[in-house]
Design goal:
alpha+beta, minor pseudopilin epsh fold, 9 strands
Protein backbone atom coordinates (compact mmCIF):
# COMPACT_ATOMS: atom_id res chain seq x y z
CA UNK A 1 0.00 0.00 0.00
CA UNK A 2 1.20 3.44 -0.70
CA UNK A 3 1.72 6.10 1.86
CA UNK A 4 -1.31 8.12 0.59
CA UNK A 5 -3.61 5.12 0.86
CA UNK A 6 -2.67 4.64 4.51
CA UNK A 7 -3.38 8.29 5.29
CA UNK A 8 -6.93 8.10 3.81
CA UNK A 9 -7.97 5.23 6.08
CA UNK A 10 -9.60 6.46 9.25
CA UNK A 11 -8.10 5.27 12.48
CA UNK A 12 -10.26 3.34 14.97
CA UNK A 13 -12.36 5.85 16.74
CA UNK A 14 -13.41 6.02 20.35
CA UNK A 15 -16.57 7.83 21.46
CA UNK A 16 -19.85 8.67 19.83
CA UNK A 17 -20.68 11.07 17.08
CA UNK A 18 -23.20 13.82 17.70
CA UNK A 19 -25.80 12.02 15.55
CA UNK A 20 -25.41 8.78 17.50
CA UNK A 21 -25.71 10.60 20.79
CA UNK A 22 -28.75 12.55 19.61
CA UNK A 23 -30.41 9.35 18.34
CA UNK A 24 -29.81 7.65 21.71
CA UNK A 25 -31.29 10.58 23.62
CA UNK A 26 -34.36 10.65 21.36
CA UNK A 27 -34.92 6.91 21.78
CA UNK A 28 -34.61 7.20 25.57
CA UNK A 29 -37.05 10.13 25.58
CA UNK A 30 -39.59 8.14 23.58
CA UNK A 31 -39.19 5.13 25.87
CA UNK A 32 -39.66 7.32 28.95
CA UNK A 33 -42.83 8.87 27.52
CA UNK A 34 -44.24 5.41 26.89
CA UNK A 35 -43.07 3.68 30.09
CA UNK A 36 -43.39 6.40 32.76
CA UNK A 37 -47.23 6.59 32.65
CA UNK A 38 -47.39 2.84 33.21
CA UNK A 39 -44.84 3.03 36.01
CA UNK A 40 -46.78 5.76 37.81
CA UNK A 41 -50.18 4.16 37.33
CA UNK A 42 -51.59 2.28 40.25
CA UNK A 43 -52.84 3.11 43.70
CA UNK A 44 -51.14 6.49 43.99
CA UNK A 45 -52.14 7.80 40.56
CA UNK A 46 -55.75 6.61 40.76
CA UNK A 47 -56.01 7.97 44.30
CA UNK A 48 -54.71 11.36 43.22
CA UNK A 49 -57.17 11.41 40.32
CA UNK A 50 -60.08 10.46 42.60
CA UNK A 51 -59.03 13.13 45.11
CA UNK A 52 -58.95 15.77 42.36
CA UNK A 53 -62.39 14.59 41.20
CA UNK A 54 -63.79 14.79 44.74
CA UNK A 55 -62.48 18.34 45.19
CA UNK A 56 -63.79 19.34 41.76
CA UNK A 57 -67.24 17.93 42.57
CA UNK A 58 -67.30 19.76 45.92
CA UNK A 59 -66.34 23.03 44.23
CA UNK A 60 -68.94 22.44 41.49
CA UNK A 61 -71.65 21.88 44.13
CA UNK A 62 -70.54 25.04 45.95
CA UNK A 63 -70.57 27.16 42.80
CA UNK A 64 -73.88 25.64 41.64
CA UNK A 65 -75.46 26.63 44.97
CA UNK A 66 -74.25 30.20 44.46
CA UNK A 67 -75.26 30.35 40.79
CA UNK A 68 -78.79 29.04 41.39
CA UNK A 69 -79.17 30.66 44.83
CA UNK A 70 -80.15 27.25 46.17
CA UNK A 71 -78.80 24.50 48.37
CA UNK A 72 -76.60 21.60 47.25
CA UNK A 73 -76.04 18.62 49.52
CA UNK A 74 -73.08 16.31 48.94
CA UNK A 75 -74.05 12.95 50.46
CA UNK A 76 -71.34 10.32 50.97
CA UNK A 77 -72.55 6.72 50.69
CA UNK A 78 -72.24 4.73 53.93
CA UNK A 79 -70.35 1.90 52.20
CA UNK A 80 -67.55 4.29 51.14
CA UNK A 81 -68.23 3.78 47.44
CA UNK A 82 -68.66 7.45 46.53
CA UNK A 83 -71.10 10.34 46.76
CA UNK A 84 -74.02 12.09 45.11
CA UNK A 85 -75.12 15.71 44.96
CA UNK A 86 -78.74 16.63 45.61
CA UNK A 87 -80.59 19.89 45.07
CA UNK A 88 -82.50 21.08 48.15
CA UNK A 89 -84.95 23.75 49.18
CA UNK A 90 -84.42 25.55 52.49
CA UNK A 91 -87.33 23.65 54.06
CA UNK A 92 -85.64 20.30 53.19
CA UNK A 93 -82.39 20.87 55.11
CA UNK A 94 -83.45 18.74 58.09
CA UNK A 95 -84.87 15.91 55.94
CA UNK A 96 -83.00 12.62 56.08
CA UNK A 97 -81.30 11.68 52.82
CA UNK A 98 -83.12 9.12 50.67
CA UNK A 99 -81.41 8.23 47.40
CA UNK A 100 -84.66 6.97 45.83
CA UNK A 101 -86.46 10.29 46.29
CA UNK A 102 -83.54 12.74 46.21
CA UNK A 103 -83.59 15.46 43.55
CA UNK A 104 -80.13 14.70 42.15
CA UNK A 105 -78.24 17.53 40.50
CA UNK A 106 -77.13 17.33 36.89
CA UNK A 107 -73.49 16.29 36.67
CA UNK A 108 -71.61 19.28 35.28
CA UNK A 109 -68.17 17.80 36.00
CA UNK A 110 -68.18 14.19 34.80
CA UNK A 111 -69.68 13.82 31.34
CA UNK A 112 -70.05 10.08 31.91
CA UNK A 113 -71.90 10.49 35.22
CA UNK A 114 -74.54 7.96 36.18
CA UNK A 115 -77.33 8.93 33.77
CA UNK A 116 -75.83 12.44 33.61
CA UNK A 117 -76.68 12.91 37.28
CA UNK A 118 -74.18 13.95 39.93
CA UNK A 119 -73.51 10.47 41.28
CA UNK A 120 -70.08 8.93 41.67
CA UNK A 121 -69.84 5.27 42.59
CA UNK A 122 -66.25 4.09 42.47
CA UNK A 123 -67.42 0.48 42.12
CA UNK A 124 -69.05 1.33 38.79
CA UNK A 125 -66.07 3.18 37.30
CA UNK A 126 -63.08 1.07 36.25
CA UNK A 127 -60.75 4.04 36.82
CA UNK A 128 -61.55 4.10 40.52
CA UNK A 129 -62.74 0.64 41.52
CA UNK A 130 -60.04 0.35 44.23
CA UNK A 131 -60.90 3.69 45.87
CA UNK A 132 -62.91 4.05 49.06
CA UNK A 133 -64.06 6.92 51.25
CA UNK A 134 -63.71 6.61 55.02
CA UNK A 135 -64.25 8.56 58.22
CA UNK A 136 -66.79 11.03 56.83
CA UNK A 137 -67.71 13.49 59.56
CA UNK A 138 -69.36 16.86 59.13
CA UNK A 139 -70.73 18.84 62.06
CA UNK A 140 -69.43 16.11 64.35
CA UNK A 141 -71.55 13.27 63.02
CA UNK A 142 -73.09 13.77 59.59
CA UNK A 143 -72.10 11.93 56.40
CA UNK A 144 -73.06 14.89 54.22
CA UNK A 145 -72.24 18.53 53.72
CA UNK A 146 -74.63 21.20 52.45
CA UNK A 147 -73.67 24.35 50.56
CA UNK A 148 -75.96 27.37 50.89
CA UNK A 149 -76.70 30.18 48.38
CA UNK A 150 -73.64 32.15 49.58
CA UNK A 151 -71.28 29.20 48.97
CA UNK A 152 -70.79 28.57 52.67
CA UNK A 153 -71.68 25.34 54.43
CA UNK A 154 -74.63 24.89 56.76
CA UNK A 155 -75.75 22.24 59.23
CA UNK A 156 -79.05 20.41 58.83
CA UNK A 157 -80.80 23.01 61.02
CA UNK A 158 -79.63 25.84 58.73
CA UNK A 159 -77.06 27.16 61.22
CA UNK A 160 -73.47 27.73 60.05
CA UNK A 161 -71.60 24.45 59.82
CA UNK A 162 -68.66 23.57 62.04
CA UNK A 163 -67.02 21.98 59.01
CA UNK A 164 -65.71 18.48 58.65
CA UNK A 165 -63.66 16.08 56.64
CA UNK A 166 -63.39 12.72 54.93
CA UNK A 167 -60.57 10.45 53.87
CA UNK A 168 -60.03 8.96 50.46
CA UNK A 169 -58.04 5.73 50.33
CA UNK A 170 -56.34 4.01 47.41
CA UNK A 171 -54.24 1.01 48.42
CA UNK A 172 -51.73 2.19 51.01
CA UNK A 173 -52.24 5.84 49.99
CA UNK A 174 -54.64 8.16 51.82
CA UNK A 175 -55.73 11.78 51.46
CA UNK A 176 -57.61 13.93 53.95
CA UNK A 177 -60.10 16.39 52.44
CA UNK A 178 -61.25 19.04 54.92
CA UNK A 179 -63.92 21.72 54.65
CA UNK A 180 -63.47 24.74 56.90
CA UNK A 181 -66.30 25.87 59.18
CA UNK A 182 -68.73 28.38 57.70
CA UNK A 183 -66.83 29.12 54.46
CA UNK A 184 -66.42 25.56 53.19
CA UNK A 185 -62.84 26.26 52.10
CA UNK A 186 -61.36 22.96 50.92
CA UNK A 187 -57.89 21.73 51.85
CA UNK A 188 -56.26 18.46 50.88
CA UNK A 189 -53.34 16.72 52.53
CA UNK A 190 -51.74 13.34 51.99
CA UNK A 191 -51.89 11.43 55.28
CA UNK A 192 -50.64 8.00 54.30
CA UNK A 193 -48.67 6.31 51.61
CA UNK A 194 -45.50 4.57 50.59
CA UNK A 195 -42.31 6.45 51.51
Amino acid sequence: MTHNALQNQSPLRSGWTFIELLTTVVVLAIVSVVIVPFATSGASASGQAATRLAVTELLAAQMDAVATQGYRRVHFFADGSGWCIAELESNELADAFDFTTANLAVDIVEAQGQGQLAVMRFTEDSRFNTISIRNVSFDGKSDEVTFDPTGGIVASNGAPSTGGSFELQSGEFEWLIQLAPLTGKITVSEIGGAP
